[in-house]
């Protein structure tokens, strides 16, 4: 996954860059992302979506009017295309859409976006582990993967026994990997504390 310098970019630019990277590297098309974003928006803010005239694509599939659906789908895809435009003419993404935008991303791009955005405020992107049978296992996998990234890049950083200006080329990626590891570890520690509290 692309780990280029996003720290100095705007919130919009971060959201767009990560979504575009995901689209470029996966089988998900731009239209597929638009559809996922639409679904996430109507899950989180249906009234706001209606106020803004956004089509409920999933709701429209329950009607027999496929022509109306086709027109709405095309118009919505065009709107998302304008948000994803990186030519400088891009339309700003409203802040209330940010959470749905991140939720519409596949992993690991979703975690990447959470880490990038929360890191701007000195926060960790810690998510509470759900109650699903494999939720804790997925977080453990995140710990393992993040640790692998930290160890791999750390080997390059500390090859000379120091972490200094010579390692500037690695610094931002190393920070991201460390924050990801920390976020996953804190989530797992919280779950461990919860499990331990039920024993006593």
Protein described:
With 200 residues, the chain is mostly helical. 66% of the residues lie in helices and 0% in strands. It contains 9 helices and no strands. α2 (30-44) crosses α6 and α7 packs across α9. The chain is globular. The N and C termini lie far apart (43 Å).
Helix/strand order, N-terminal first = HHHHHHHHH
Mean pLDDT: 86
Number of separate strands: 0
Count up the domains: 2
Rg, rounded, reads 20 Å
Count helical runs. Answer: 9
CA(first)-CA(last) distance: 43 Å
Strand content: under 5%
Low-confidence stretches: none
Which sheet architecture does the biggest sheet show? none
| SS-based class | mainly alpha
Oligomeric state, counting identical vs distinct chains:
single chain
Helix-residue proportion: 55-70%
Shape from CA axes? globular
For the structure shown, list the relevant keywords.
200 residues, mainly alpha, 2 domains, 9 helices, 66% helix, globular
Give a quick precis of the structure:
The chain has 200 residues and is mainly α.
What is the secondary structure topology, with strand pairs?
Elements: H1 11-25, H2 30-44, H3 46-51, H4 57-60, H5 66-84, H6 98-104, H7 109-119, H8 135-157, H9 168-199
